[in-house]
Amino acid sequence: SALPATDQVNDFKYSGVHWLGANPQVTYWVNPLNPWSLADADTVSVVQTAFNEWVNHQTDGDSNVNFVYGGLTVAEVSANPVRDGLNTASFESLNSTYPNAIAITFYWYNRITKGIVEADTVFNSDLSWSINPYGAVFSGSYDLQNIATHEFGHWLVLGDLYNNRDSELTMYGYGSTGETKKDTLGKGDISGIHKAY
Fold it and tell me: Residue 25: enclosing H or E segment and its boundaries?
């Protein structure tokens, strides 16, 4: 029989690409410019919280990835990005190029070493976004922390999951307005990090 959809399902998808080194440090920058008047400090705080959700589930004995906030940037990532040497999170219009995308993460890696050299996340500014207080549900907009936590799983090169039984996991490939369940990792998400590192 099919497994029920809970965050205790132990599914993940991993490609073999990763940040190189014993304990790689990945510095990222945030361009908080957005059309909804989300405050810079709040946007940065949510991005940091989303990265820390992954960092906090690494264990001793793993090769732990340390995500470090580098500061604000005015760098923008287009829908067809090129490497610029900065790992960034920003809001940009995606509807014309990726009409169904809530957000997209791009990464570049060395084909020989399979080591990542840069990652960028773009949140679709054509959609409505909010920063939800704990426990609140804003049904008409996407919660930044919810989607950011999912996208930063892609920085660890975990893939989207599409089985119904995986719908409670952070790496489930669909999101909805008002959703906050991706804020915290499930069993499969955590197993994925341990497999990768």
Answer: strand 25-31
CA–CA gap between residue 23 and residue 183 (Å, rounded) = 24
SS3 196: helix
pTM beyond 0.90: the answer is yes
Please compute, for residue 115, the number of CA atoms within 13 A of its CA located in the half-sphere on the CB side.
10
SS3 91: strand
Nearest to 175 by CA among 149, 156, 155, 157: 149
End-to-end distance of the chain based on CA atoms, in angstroms?
32
For strands 87-92 and 116-124, give the pairing. parallel
The DSSP secondary-structure symbol of 33 reads -
- Return the residue matching tokens 């510095």: 27
Residues 6 or more apart whose CB falls under 8 angstroms from that of 116 comprise 17, 18, 19, 20, 107, 108, 109, 155, 157
- Tens digits of residue pLDDT in 59-113: 766 678 999 999 999 877 776 788 899 999 999 999 999 988 999 999 999 999 9
